[in-house]
Amino acid sequence: MLNYDNFTIEMATRLQNEMKENISLKTRNKNISTIAGADISHEVGSSKLYAGIVILSYPDLIPLSYSLAVGESKFEYKAEYLAFREVPTLIKAWEQIPVKPDLLILDGQGITHPRRMGIASHFGLLTDHPTIGCAKNMLHGKYDVLEDEKFSFRPIYKNQDKLGFALRTKTHVKPVFISPGHHMSVDDSLEIMNRTVQKYRIPEPTRQAHVMVNLFRTGQRQAGYHEFDVQLPLF
């Protein structure tokens, strides 16, 4: 199993700088019929991690299946190096899925990262799969003043490079920060994520993954791959 426990920050930085050269910002597949959200939950003070991936139909967002896995990481928590802590357990959940979704949305950054290597880019490169990062907090770049209305957006720039978008998913509520991870263009990442917004701040793929993984952590769901018998909205 992939493990970064023995990596120092210097080693992690070097690997990020090497990996970023292989990121593709061209959309591999625009004919999306399934989309998934991925998230991690953990117990405070513990190295144990709970990973969840929820697959939904697209664009109607009906839940189809989910995969849950437990892992462990001793890599310290640092925002710029989240992938080194979380990706190994997420890949464990990913490998349980027999038919992969067309696109995976991860709770975190894509290329809106000092080395353009957020968790969505890292995961996408390791799996060679299209990914988008949907982060709750800004890590890198700047954007202009954003209107308060739902679906308002502004591009995120670093120097002259457009890296992603700040997207208001709910009126008068803090935006989320969208950026491509791998095999996805900047503009297509916004178009796709707009169609996953419902009544909550967090878009449906990562919101449902967040709820599911916390049910898993508290013993209300079991590890493994599961398909839904009744395809209705989860939460």
TrEMBL record:
Site (Interaction with target DNA): 77
Residues where Mg(2+) binds: 39, 107
Task performed by this protein: DNA repair enzyme involved in the repair of deaminated bases. Selectively cleaves double-stranded DNA at the second phosphodiester bond 3' to a deoxyinosine leaving behind the intact lesion on the nicked DNA.
Cofactor(s) demanded: Mg(2+)
Annotated coiled-coil segments of the chain: none
EC class name: hydrolase
A GO CC term assigned to this protein in UniProt: cytoplasm
One MF annotation (Gene Ontology) recorded for this entry: magnesium ion binding
EC number, UniProt record: 3.1.21.7
Lineage, uppermost ranks: Bacteria, Pseudomonadati, Bacteroidota, Flavobacteriia, Flavobacteriales
Compartment(s) of residence: Cytoplasm
Gene Ontology annotations of biological process type: DNA repair
Protein known as: Endonuclease V
InterPro entries: Endonuclease-V
UniProt keyword terms in alphabetical order: Cytoplasm, DNA damage, DNA repair, Endonuclease, Hydrolase, Magnesium, Metal-binding, Nuclease
Source superkingdom: Bacteria
